[in-house]
Amino acid sequence: MWKEVIRRLLLIIPVAVGVYTVVFLMIRIVPGDPVLALVEEGAMSADRMESIRHELGLDRPVYVQYFDYLVRLASFDLGVSFNTGQPVKKMILEALPYSLQLTAVAMFIATVFGLLTGTLSAVRHNSWADTAAMVLAVVGIAAPDFWLGLLLILVFVLRLGWFPLTEVGLSWNILLLPAVTLAVRPMASIARLSRASCLEVLHECYVTTARAKGLGERTVVLRHVVRNALIPVTTIIGLDLGATISNAMVIEVVFARPGIGRIILVAIQHHDFPTIQATVTLSCIFYAVMNILVDLGYVALDPRLRT
Amino acid sequence: MADRQGIEQGAQGALPMSTTASPGQSDDWAVASRKPRSLTSDALRRMARSPSGRIGAIGLSILVLIALAAAWIAPYDPLAVDPPSAFQAPNPQHLMGTDQYGRDVLSRVLFGTRLSLLIGLVATAVAFSLGVAVGLFSGYVGAVTDLVVMRIVDIMIAIPSQLMALTIVAAMGPSLRNVMIATGISAVPRFSRLVRSTVLSAKQNDYVLAARTVGCTGGRIAIRHILPNAVGPALILAAIYVSWAILLAAGLSFLGMGAQPPTPEWGLMLSNGRQYLRVAPWLTTFPGLAIMITVVAINLLGDALRDAFDPRLTT
């Protein structure tokens, strides 16, 4: 099994190179010139622009730029931002805790509450609670998360004043609203799927056997139903993770959190090549590693998969 | 299925069975005199029965009507600026209030329906056509081409879709048209993977071998024989994707990469309303509600469609 894990970790490398290539090509097709973007105040002489271009390494042939940055990525030298002049690595490391915290807590909330709701819905099939939960789930998947975030800000920050508005930091106070907003959509889809999955499992023979053995309903559900229903849900968690990572970007804008998403957005607006290349490539590597972890979770859940 | 029911009816005596003619002939007669029930009509019937499908269909019809009739039902011009009436809360003259320029929010929301439905359709059309083309080509040609194309598709799937769409829009320049294209392109990997797997299984069928034996060229086989059988799942994915496209595009517009002011696009209206959240919350409430209702309707319809074609639920 560990051989498989190592193999997949190694496979990330060609994928990362591929992603880097795709991003590199896409941002170079841009008609915008990064040097022109830096020149906002007043006119600059052609000589000055040339020297800036030379400093940034933009006057080299494209393939040289490609390989140079690729090699530097491999050695974790992420270059210097065109826009802010700061080393990209520093920018990313500063923003990383905020993004990781947000995504991790959001996925945790989504998984726990989604499973809870879905399982309860399945157990109380066709009751009022079930219908209400599923209606909420449909709404949760459909509602735009940035809109929900704005509504939550309106109610809890502006009208009730329970949470701070402009503070920045890693405390729970500041984390709660963005995390809940980000968690809504994955929670809704996990709830729907775990309900469907539990319903299927509830009809299985081993559940009837467990009940016949005399186990209480709660034990039956917890020990047999949920474990088995969890397997398709894990797939969805893996898929939702990717969506959550990109949704986190929008939520960070809504709640003004200084995370990776904001860095990517600003970089894109300013044609900041090194930052875009580094952040997008790293995000995809992160996503790929998370997927491997999810697959490991599969193996942990389902003993039949262990070789 | 038609055969079986035809024979059953014949066995029950509902249709006169000739005793002298050969069994094959009487079966043909029994079959030929029944109206054929295709898979599509069965699925449509099942969709009509499901409550969520009906809600979705009604909702979508209303939305399409609004989109088509926006110019006639909207009380004001969505772009008409009226500074004295700025920041009015919802009232009888302006049912959804006004924004900072005095523009009527209701009219803007109504016209926004047009844009959002258009975005959903165009993006899905782009994703569907490109995805089917790539999947069909890759799956049919096979061998090295297939390997190469699938590696590229895998790489594109490794990039989360919103990020991918954002990068594409950034490369093309912020505009509504580019958002539509970018949203479409970001879904091509998923479509092409799906089509490729159905093409691979369709290739195994005997009619492909027969066609080749008769002398059909590869292209002809691909388009006339494999394509009709392979598009089914892709069409269902397309129906479901329309709502995701609308959400994705609204998000991009919210970030400023999509529709530009003064277009009455819902995502852009949300971004605008964000600045005035404290004083004019109606600017964010209504456009977001509109997005949500649209996505719910299309989602319900898409889910009903998918369940209707699900072979496991076939009665």
Set down the secondary structure blueprint:
The complex is a heterodimer of chains A (307) and B (315).
Chain A: H1 2-29, H2 34-38, H3 46-56, H4 62-74, H5 88-123, H6 128-142, H7 145-159, H8 172-202, H9 205-213, H10 217-254, H11 260-269, H12 273-301
Helix pairs in contact in A: 1-12, 5-6, 5-8, 5-10, 6-8, 7-8, 7-10, 8-10, 9-10, 10-11, 10-12, 11-12
Chain B: H1 2-11, H2 23-32, H3 39-49, H4 51-73, H5 105-141, H6 143-158, H7 161-172, H8 176-203, H9 206-214, H10 218-254, H11 266-275, H12 282-308
Helix pairs in contact in B: 1-2, 3-12, 4-5, 4-12, 5-6, 5-8, 5-10, 5-12, 6-8, 7-8, 8-10, 9-10, 10-11, 10-12, 11-12
Q: How would you describe this protein?
A:
The complex is a heterodimer of chains A (about 300) and B (about 325). Chain A has 2 domains: about 70 residues, no CATH class; about 180 residues, MetI-like (MetI-like fold, Orthogonal Bundle). Chain A is built from 12 helices and no strands. In chain A, helix 5 crosses helix 8. The radius of gyration of chain A is 24 Å and the shape is globular. With about 325 residues, chain B is mainly α. Chain B has a domain of about 220 residues: MetI-like (MetI-like fold, Orthogonal Bundle), CATH 1.10.3720. Chain B is about 75% helix and about 0% strand. Chain B has 12 helices and no strands. In chain B, helix 4 packs across helix 12, helix 5 packs antiparallel against helix 6 and helix 10 packs antiparallel against helix 12. The termini of chain B are close together. The interface between A and B is large, with 43 and 42 residues.
